[in-house]
Amino acid sequence: MSTFLTPGAAEDISSWFKDHILPENAIVADVYVLDPAKRTQIADFLSQELPDCFISKDDIDAQINRTGMSIQEIVQNKFADPGSVMAGDFGEILSLFFLGSAGGHGLKKVKKWRFKQDRNKPAPHSDVILLHCTDPEHPHDDDFLICAEAKVKSTASKTYRPIANALEGYESDRTGRLAKTLAWLREKAIESDTAYSIKYIERFSKDQIRVPYHRRHRAIAVIDSDFLDAELVEAVTIPTHDGTFKIVVMAVAELKALYEECFKRAVAEAKHG
């Protein structure tokens, strides 16, 4: 059975981004820019990974057998139409793989986009969740969770501020939405996943009081490179910037063209079996 909890990708995609020299009066943030030499590499990687974020291989097989449709039609049916939701999905998934790559071995990525009720609406609850538990049968206080709110700015706007909006989402996660997300993920695991996955999720929900774990929050902005420095000098109220919370900004040249290419290729290049 396919599971929506998957190990970290072998590709070290965080290494494809370079540190950015901050402009004067920039906010406190970890800022990275995609290396232009890695653009093809990241497009290849995400085009291959996107379908599994939205639908498991088992469900693809079942739908092909039931409907007689092609894998391209099945995958296309899961993706949002071009626009803000597609951009948002891309930013969340890029953030998931970036954090999974940077966070070390043993992280489980939660592919929550499989549970979207409407392909043209965002997935519910917290944007990005990664879990680390050595043994869910024996919870340990070294276990940890990464929760991120991800916002995207791929086109020009004088009013939309992705960093400020990501900070608002972080506050929602910190003050209650994360707990609701974990309860929801447990329900989804009971509906469609393995006993191991259920136990893994329960370590961070039902067992969290008995054996506490560490929470790491991130407010992430994925921004077209053309707007990067202007966004970095916008005034925002920033919580303590340490291991528990960080602002992470990722910049990509021609971001809109990249995410549209990745979704288009994910359909065209989808393979059965």
Topology (SSEs and partners):
Blueprint lengths: L4 E3 L9 E3 L10 E5 L4 H16 L2 H11 L3 H6 L7 H19 L5 E3 L17 E5 L11 E10 L8 H31 L2 H9 L10 E11 L3 H5 L12 E8 L2 H14 L5
Parallel strand pairs: 3-8, 6-7, 7-8
Antiparallel strand pairs: 1-4, 2-3, 4-5, 5-6
Can you describe this structure?
- This protein has 273 residues and is of the alpha/beta class.
- Helix content is 41%, strand content 18%.
- The chain has eight helices and eight strands, in the order βββααααβββααβαβα.
- It has helices spanning 39-54, 57-67, 71-76, 84-102, 162-192, 195-203, 228-232, 255-268; strands at residues 5-7, 17-19, 30-34, 108-110, 128-132, 144-153, 214-224, 245-252.
- It has an eight-stranded mixed sheet with strand order 1-4-5-6-7-8-3-2.
- The mean pLDDT is 94.
Please give the order of strands in the largest beta sheet.
1-4-5-6-7-8-3-2
Q: How many helices in DSSP terms?
A: 8
Chain oligomer state: single chain
The end-to-end distance, rounded to whole angstroms, is 14 Å
Helix content: 40-55%
- Summarize the helix and strand pattern as letters: EEEHHHHEEEHHEHEH
| Portion in beta strands | 15-25%
Number of DSSP E strands: 8
Give the low-pLDDT segments: none
Structural class: alpha/beta
Shape from CA axes? globular
Query: Main beta sheet: strand number and arrangement?
Result: 8 strands, mixed
Kindly report the average pLDDT value: 94
Radius of gyration: 18 Å
